[in-house]
Design brief:
The complex is a heterodimer.
Chain A lengths: L6 E7 L9 H5 L5 E4 L3 E4 L9 H5 L5 E7 L1
Antiparallel strand pairs in A: 1-4, 2-3
Chain B lengths: L9 H13 L9 H13 L3 H6 L1 H12 L15 H26 L8 E4 L3 E4 L11 H27 L5 H4 L1 H13 L6
Antiparallel strand pairs in B: 1-2
The chains are: A alpha+beta, B mainly alpha.
Bound molecules: iron/sulfur cluster (SF4) (3 copies).
Chain lengths: ~70, ~190
């Protein structure tokens, strides 16, 4: 397991202010988003490619694209 | 993404507003956008209505998105705060019950039918052309005028915030959206946001 650390971009939802409208789910080209129990949006990190479409669409602007090391 | 049948429900929302312009009794259909989301939330425990079927959200998305009628700015922080969202929900309900009370008064014969649509709880628009008198009780028409007022008011507010902020900004403070989210929270006490 000598994989080098790589920086990847992933969507992050500030769940406490998410209104669970689902606008982000509709625009995600990877199907990486889902609304968890009608309360907030959840990102599937393994599917998210960090394109930022969801962040642009979110009416509450509660999604940011962050760099994570994987 | 694959297009689904429910992606065109914005047509129904638009049609609703148009029909109410010609015959106010169509306003009764608006009860569907009231009970369906609540039932989905209460029985299914999810926001399937917002997430899939809501034509109003789609309409704002279309006008603000595809037609570009939106500045696409971030909504102010206070508008997504809990106190504003819950406060607006309470205000909306207070106004709703006042409308029901007026309907009751007409049903009880204590008040005459007022053929007006009240915009933003303040402005009374003449709307008499949309009612021709029917075999039904005037109270039935009063409810229709009142309910249409609620729908038109929320549409106007939604259009305003669509232009100012992101296309579907209305969804941030939409009373139905807030209420269904609250029901879901109550149904899933262990899902913490
Ligand atoms: S678009 Fe924004 S507010 Fe709506 S569900 Fe997605 S993250 Fe939450
Ligand atoms: S950043 Fe792109 S891939 Fe990731 S969740 Fe958002 S829309 Fe989907
Ligand atoms: S928040 Fe309101 S307008 Fe937005 S999708 Fe839900 S019910 Fe429709």
């Amino acid at each position: 397991m000598n994989q080098t650390m790589r920086v990847k971009r992933k969507a992050r939802v500030e769940t406490s202010v998410c209104v669970a409208c689902g606008c982000c789910v509709k625009v995600c080209p990877m199907g990486a988003l889902s609304i968890s129990d009608g309360i907030y949006a959840k990102v599937d990190d393994s599917a998210c490619v960090g394109c930022g479409k969801c962040a642009k669409e979110c009416p509450a602007s509660v999604i940011s694209i962050e760099e994570v090391t994987a | 993404m694959k297009k689904r049948w429910y992606d065109d429900l914005w047509i129904a929302s638009l049609l609703y507003l148009v029909l109410g312009f010609f015959n106010i009794l169509f306003a009764w259909l608006g009860l569907l956008c009231f009970f369906i989301p609540l039932l989905i939330a209460a029985i299914g425990g999810n926001k399937g209505y917002c997430n899939r079927y809501c034509g109003r959200g789609q309409l704002f998305g279309l006008l603000g998105g595809r037609f570009g009628l939106s500045r696409r700015r971030d909504i102010p922080r206070w508008m997504k705060s809990k106190w504003f969202r819950y406060g607006f929900l309470i205000f909306f309900f207070a106004m709703f019950f006042q409308m029901l009370w007026n309907t009751y008064l007409v049903f009880a014969g204590a008040q005459d039918l007022k053929q007006v649509v009240t915009l933003l709880w303040t402005f009374r628009l003449p709307w008499h052309w949309a009612y021709h008198g029917t075999l039904l009780h005037p109270g039935v028409a009063q409810f229709a005028f009142g309910f249409y007022s609620v729908m038109l008011t929320s549409t106007v507010l939604g259009l305003l915030t669509m232009v100012l902020f992101k296309p579907r900004s209305w969804c941030v403070y939409c009373p139905m959206g807030t209420m269904t989210q609250l029901i879901c929270k109550a149904k899933h006490p262990n899902t913490r946001s």
